[in-house]
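User: Hey, my collaborator sent me this sequence without any context and asked if I could get a structure. I don't really work with proteins. Can you help?
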Amino acid sequence: MARAGLTTERVVLAAADLADEIGFENVTVAALARQFGVKDASMYAHVKNVRELRERIALLASGEMIDRIALAVAGRAGKDALVAFADAYRAYALERPGRYRATHTQLDPALVAGTTTYHRTAEVTYGMLRAYGLSEPDLTDAVRLLRSTFHGYCNLEAIGGFGAPRSVETSWRHALDALHVALENWPGAEDGDRA
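Assistant: No problem. I've predicted the 3D structure and written it out in structure-token form, which is a compact way to encode the shape of the chain:
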């Protein structure tokens, strides 16, 4: 029988907090049970296994992250929206490292099917990019460019990978300026390929 007071939501939130403390890869059912002071078996009333636990952390984190980004970009367009999006992304990645790592987990489609998180993520991201006049397939290419740039920068920053004396913040601002220019001058625009 599950311990009184434990719910799936409470278990997943505690696991997400644990991921930020010890690293996403180190979150196990046993480690979580220790956090609650219960036997491992008590956790299995809420999650089937460590894979499901980690997938639920990923879903929680993805929802938190897009909520933060959506709030930041609300009412903005063009470069203002791009900068707000990027800054919210970076802040989440640096403040919540375990959760952020979780957002890169491949999820069971059945788990995702009952949520709106990924639809909302696409809606916010594509909405921000449409202000640049992009349509498919350019939207997908632009999303991939932004995601890889933001992810790479945040990962390198988190591990202290920028050793040059130049301010990391200044480099971030210049990277966003460059992305804005790239989006405004997307390849194919001169050929009338954009909508």
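In plain terms: The radius of gyration is 19 Å. You can pass these tokens on to your collaborator as they are.
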